[in-house]
Design a protein that fits this description.
With 365 residues, the chain is mainly α. It contains 20 helices and no strands. The protein has 3 domains: 91 residues, Tetratricopeptide repeat domain (Serine Threonine Protein Phosphatase 5, Tetratricopeptide repeat, Alpha Horseshoe), CATH 1.25.40.10; 67 residues, Tetratricopeptide repeat domain (Serine Threonine Protein Phosphatase 5, Tetratricopeptide repeat, Alpha Horseshoe), CATH 1.25.40.10; 102 residues. Helix 5 packs across helix 6 and helix 12 packs antiparallel against helix 13. The N and C termini lie far apart (65 Å).
């Protein structure tokens, strides 16, 4: 038996003895569990948390669930995670109720069940737990596990937003921007987008940028729009990456810079954004900001076609076919790349297809 195994066995025995002699010390064991976990000492934390969990401490049960879910100090196991989250949730521990709802929401360690997800989100939300209130808001917004209800969605987003929870502030902003469950109000939308954006929430940063770009709820200001698009883009927001590329491409609110346009188109394209893939193909075809390459252009038109096809945009996919065919004569494509047009047609029609679709203009916003 190794030193680590001996330590775990000794510690487990000691903890069990403490619990048997003085059950009142269970809370101290749970505190020790929490501290070890917080310090990142997962292997030492596991036997402590397990013992405190067996003694019924909901905090320790929740932490043990996290350890199984993330595979920290123990082999990753979603089913075991659900088991311990449930024990804590049934004792009314709000954080565990929310995460148990999330496990049902996404089918982690348990069969996916929207109704059960709503049940547990609601239990935590009614205790004032902001994350659960926000999650419940989204369930009402999308009508998952509950009848779709904009008023209820707004109610729960607001409760969480007023506690400073960024995702809920974003949700509330969207409700005001679209007039869902409340009178449409760009000023209120801007207010809540800003609160979430200032906390670093990328979707809200993108939303705030759109408000500045369109002059909604605020005077139009491309410089500020650029600032927020950039912050969202740097966090990986694909829509912001595409728009930032477009702004540099066409010199909208910033000095035209094809190299920077390519940089941001590429980041969005790699995430599967069809518009970015198409515009990136155009840059390679024209040699703007990048070395002209018919082969690279064909590859990106093909990828854009597939992405459009996944989104059900057959006409846009067909336009990509036409662009590849145009490259065949204009830039003398190699045979494999020239055949990408036929390959894309096969993906669209399963073999035979018309080739009369018009070539598009560059994708704009």
């Amino acid at each position: 038996m190794g030193e680590k195994d001996l330590f775990k066995l000794t510690l487990a025995c000691l903890l069990a003895l403490i619990g048997w002699v003085n059950p009142g010390l269970a809370a101290d064991v749970a505190d020790y569990c929490k501290q070890l976990y917080k310090d990142g000492q997962y292997e030492q934390a596991f036997p402590v948390c397990r013992e405190a969990s067996k003694q019924g401490d909901s905090r320790a049960q929740f932490i043990l669930g996290k350890m199984y879910y993330f595979g920290k100090g123990v082999q990753q196991n979603d089913t075991e995670a659900v088991k311990w989250y449930r024990k804590a949730a049934e004792q009314g521990y709000a954080k565990a109720q929310n995460i148990l709802g999330w496990m049902y929401d996404f089918g982690k360690g348990v069969q996916q069940n929207d109704t059960e997800a709503v049940k547990w989100y609601r239990k935590a939300a009614e205790q004032g737990y902001a994350k659960a209130q926000c999650n419940l808001g989204w369930m009402y917004d999308f009508g998952k596990g509950v009848q779709q209800d904009d008023t209820e969605a707004l109610k729960w987003f607001r409760k969480a937003a007023e506690q400073g929870y960024a995702k809920a502030q974003y949700g509330l902003a969207v409700m005001y921007a679209r007039g869902k469950g409340v009178q449409q109000d760009d000023t209120e939308a801007l207010k809540w987008f800003r609160k979430a954006a200032e906390q670093g929430y990328a979707k809200a940063q993108y939303g705030l940028a759109v408000m500045y770009a369109r002059g909604k709820g605020v005077q139009q200001d491309y410089a500020k729009a650029l600032k927020w698009y950039r912050q969202a883009a740097e966090k990986g927001n694909v829509d912001a990456q595409f728009i930032l590329g477009w702004m540099y491409d066409f010199g909208k609110g910033v000095q035209q810079d094809y190299a920077k346009a390519v940089k941001w188109y590429f980041k969005a394209a790699e995430q599967g954004n069809a518009k970015a893939q198409f515009n990136l193909a155009v840059t390679y075809a024209r040699g703007k900001g990048v070395l002209q390459s018919g082969e690279a252009a064909a590859d990106w038109y093909y990828k854009a076609g597939l992405s459009n096809l996944k989104e059900g945009k057959k006409d846009d996919a067909l336009r990509c076919v036409e662009r590849i065919k145009d490259l065949k004569t204009a830039l003398h494509l190699s045979v494999p790349n020239a055949f990408l047009a036929d390959k894309l047609l096969t993906d669209i029609y399963g073999g035979v297809a018309p080739n009369t679709s018009p070539a598009p203009k560059r994708s704009r916003k």
